Amino acid sequence: MEATALKRLKKERIDWRAEHPPGFYARLKKNKDGTHDYFNWECGIPGPKGTPWEGGLYKINLRFPEDYPVLPPKCVFEKKLFHPNVYPSGAVCLSIINDEEDWRAGLKVKDILLGIQDLLGNPNLKSPAQKEAFESYNKKSDEYRRKVREQAKECAPKLEDFKRHLNKNNNETEKEKEKDKDGSINTVSTNNNSNGNENNINSTGK
Question: Which residues belong to the active site?
Answer without folding.
Answer: 93
